[in-house]
Amino acid sequence: MKPLTADQTLFRDPAVFESAHLPEVFNHRDTQLEALAFALRPAFAGYRPQHAVLRGVPGTGKTTAIRLLFAEVEETTTQVVPVLVSCQVEKSLFAVVAEIFRVLVGHAPPTSGVSIKRLMSEVAHVLMAREAAVVVCLDDAHWLLADGGLDAVLAPLLRMHEVWPAVRVGVVLTLSAPEADLARALDPGTRSVFQAAEVFFPPYSAGEVRAILGDRVRAGLYPGVMPPAVLDLVVERAVATADLRVGLDLIGRAARAAEEAGRRTVTAGDVLAAFVVSKNRHLAVTIEGLSASERAVLAAALDEGRAEDGAAGAGQVYGRVCEGAEMSYTVFHERLKKLERLRLVDVQMVRRGRGRRREIGVREGVEEVLCRTTGRHAGVAEDQK
Ligand SMILES: Nc1ncnc2c1ncn2[C@@H]1O[C@H](COP(=O)(O)OP(=O)(O)OP(=O)(O)O)[C@@H](O)[C@H]1O
């Protein structure tokens, strides 16, 4: 077989392997899409939409389901305004309401000199003037679970109709941390008004993963570029890591490597080499979303673990963090809880001699990703805030 020339490509459509790509074929999620559509239905008849909570481990299609449904709503009516907010990026009530304002009005509100009260009032008046309902999806809401962050965003949104009775707001939360406990994260008052439909997104079976990745290969690569045995290897890796995104990333990355090498087909070697990076893809996204102080706690736990040859004592980690920049123990504890919730570290009480101590173990892959994303040896806390 002749090698590829410089102007030839293996990709029918490279965008198909990008993380923001909205797939044309979205199988295996009919039940969840129906439950969501059912929750939104009252909004189309002039009532308040039902709230919903979408649960499922990462990569089970929650965001995609919402994006597809919202796109359909946008095409169908202007009476229901969908707003998708990533809680990894927008973490405050102001940021969420500013995004609602932006979608409604077409431009962002001023970032200074406007109080949250005024911004909410403006949003309410636009909604009332248009007789429209708004459905806000707080995507990856587990990012707000620490420090009462979710309650601070949710409670005012849920109470808008108490101030402006004609305002209709529906909230959809997506949560990919299975242990996320809404009952504990929300005040009793918020809990009592947040009556939400629970929609569960189970992990895909190996057969479903194969079908989804096969569809993506057909959409993104030219025929014959990825032989069935090589796709099997991709599927095996995606199933082993329980993350469909690893499979999608792996296909794109391996095909790019084959193309760069001037080959017309992807080999098992391309897949295995790409897997070294792809397997930690989700970790990389999670670590990129951390604040400087969260990162500092993670780096200190790694350094201390290395020094102690394993899991590190929480007190020692705290001491190491403070060597870089002052941090109160309360703030340290909150940062640690968040890292645990994001499954970057494990924290457990361990018996030592006659006493017990809290130990922090950093999960596999974190060190590699942290060093790659910061381009430095973990543990240098010069960027603490
Ligand atoms: N049924 C499906 N068919 C085709 N592609 C899918 C399907 N489910 C998920 N995907 C793809 O898998 C990737 C992850 O999906 P998505 O972002 O919707 O997952 P998620 O459950 O929201 O994950 P997270 O909790 O990490 O945000 C996306 O690229 C999406 O296109």
From TrEMBL:
Binding of ATP occurs at T60, G61, K62, T63, T64, Y204, R216
Where does the record place the Cdc6 C-terminal domain?
298-373
Q: Does the keyword ATP-binding apply?
A: yes
Sorted alphabetically, the Gene Ontology BP terms of this entry are: DNA replication
Q: Which UniProt keywords apply?
A: ATP-binding, DNA replication, Nucleotide-binding
Xref: SMART domains: Cdc6_C
Enumerate the GO terms in the molecular function aspect: ATP binding
Superkingdom of the source species: Archaea
Indicate the family of this protein: Belongs to the CDC6/cdc18 family.
The entry's function note states: Involved in regulation of DNA replication.
Q: What is this protein called?
A: ORC1-type DNA replication protein
Source organism per UniProt: Methanofollis formosanus
Taxonomic lineage per UniProt?
Answer: Archaea, Methanobacteriati, Methanobacteriota, Stenosarchaea group, Methanomicrobia
